[in-house]
Design brief:
Elements: H1 5-22, H2 27-48, H3 71-101, H4 111-118
Keywords: Cell membrane, Membrane, Transmembrane, Transmembrane helix
Main location: membrane
Biased composition (Basic and acidic residues): 127-146
Length: 161
């Protein structure tokens, strides 16, 4: 099989541009990068499917070429195009909604992520730390919480006649 270098180069450029746009901070650029990378993947699948050939029909007597076309790559690309169309409609709806509420689409850093990154690495600073745990090692101590079936309220029993 001889691959078309121009198609491979175009697929690589599309995927590269899509990844570059995915790494941007603007949401619309990220979403457009996702669409462009998807188109590059479709082109790569088409190239990997091989060259043109006779239609893959069972029981066909006359052949235009010696080789049948690979129907799997074409079916996968057709499915990907339909999914990409639906995703494009969803992205346009998101972009319109974002434009209606605010025009700036740059995604800022989350304040909670900054707090988590600034937290000390000791075991006592872990989010699942219990006040009764050892502050140095974070291990459970014998003075742990009084929590278990015996600490629950007793069930209400109705008087039956």
């Amino acid at each position: 099989m001889v691959a078309n270098f121009v198609l491979l180069l175009t697929a690589g450029v599309l995927i590269g541009c899509g990844v570059y746009l995915l790494l941007e901070r603007a949401m619309t650029k990220m979403l457009m990068g996702l669409l462009i990378a998807g188109n590059g993947a479709n082109l790569l699948l088409l190239t990997a499917g091989g060259g043109a050939g006779a239609p893959p029909i069972a029981g066909r007597d006359t052949t235009l070429t010696e080789v049948d076309a690979d129907p799997l790559a074409q079916a996968m690309i057709l499915t990907a195009i339909v999914i990409s169309m639906a995703m494009t409609a969803f992205i346009l709806a998101l972009a319109f909604r974002q434009y209606r509420y605010r025009t700036a689409d740059v995604i800022s850093d989350d304040a909670e992520d900054k707090e988590v990154a600034a937290r000390p690495t000791t075991a006592s600073a872990a989010p699942d730390h219990d006040a009764s745990d050892d502050p140095d090692t974070g291990r459970i101590t014998d003075r742990g919480d009084d929590f278990g079936p015996e600490s629950f309220e007793a069930p209400v029993k109705e008087d039956t006649p």
